[in-house]
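Q: Hi! First time doing this. I have a protein sequence and I read that you can turn it into a structure. Is that right? Here it is:
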Amino acid sequence: MAAMAGTILLLLVGETLSSLDQISRGCKRWRSGAQPHGDVCCDECHPGNRLVSHCGANPQDLCTPCEGKTYTQNPKNYKCSRCTQCEGAQVLVEDCTPTTDTRCGCKKGLLCGNDRCSFCLKKCGKGEEPSENRSCRPCANGTFNDQIHQKCKPWRTKCPNPDQIILASGDAFTDNRCVDVSPSSLKQPESDRTKSSWPLLLSVLPSVCLLALCIFLILTVYGLKRKKKTRDKTTNAPIITTATDDPETLIPMECSFHEAQEEHGNSSSESLVSKESQDHLVA
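A: Yes, that's right. Below is the predicted 3D structure, encoded as structure tokens:
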């Protein structure tokens, strides 16, 4: 057990010494101080070094490299920062160095919550957006998201080009769809127009036939009623006759005819009698 601990300690020391060898030690930029002993003052340490003393006789003694598992990015820090440990849903991407902090990532299906990836959150797909509690929620009505893990955006209210109109409303995944209304875009090939006209014809034809049948039945019923009404008027109409067809007028006319004929006969008889009288007298 002690041997294993010693081995681990040697490895850590070796890594620290190796990282220290890769960086320059001491002060990188200094200037002469105002002290009477000719000291210098450090304005900037080498990367990965922390400031030990601002002024001194030797510039190399003013800064010292950060110890193991610590780092600094400020050339004037008096203290190195502790390296970040990747925990939980985080995974190690790059080890810590005296000049950079540990770089962490997230497990598959998760995303970093900020630039430093200090926490992980669920990856939101299309049609949804990240929420405040680090989960995902669907896009609200009137908004959409067509990218991975992005905020939902409102549907557009007008098309980008003046020759376009909004044809269909969007959904949680797509924006409102625009189409061109120029004559060139509306022109279709003959085959396409033929194909597209058949479904319309088949859907309209039954309605047209039904409408024609209804009109025919209405006209037939109306014609029968009108014919019956005309026949009823003809049957109930009074018979108008002339004066010569009235029996009462016919009878007097007949009587007068006979009387005339009778008078005519009497005249003939009288003429015959007078003629016989004349013949008798002559004889």
